[in-house]
Amino acid sequence: MLQYRPCPKCASDRAKAIGFTWWGGIVGPKMLTHVKCTKCGTAYNGKTGKSNQTAIAIYVTVSTVVAIVAVTILSPSRQQNNPATSSGLSRNLDRVAIVPEEGIGNRG
Question: I want to staple 35 with a disulfide (CB 3.0 to 4.6 A). Which of 11, 46, 97, 103 is the partner?
Fold first, then answer.
């Protein structure tokens, strides 16, 4: 069993590793050695005995930026999905002429 630093709030040496959090899923708490005091419920860094608030903010910011970049890179752009521009047909669009059919609109 891992030995963690005493709780910064109540000085208890009984802390339990947190397996999942809303901000870091399963990976975040393990990366930050995020533990919770079993006596008072304070969550903190088990290695340093200090708060993880700054590290959590950095983790959430970096993971959000990485997710946005990944979605931006992996999602196709609208121009690539447009058959007129992606197949080269747009070069000929200025040559299209609309010719009225005989008898339509001509009453003479």
Answer: 46
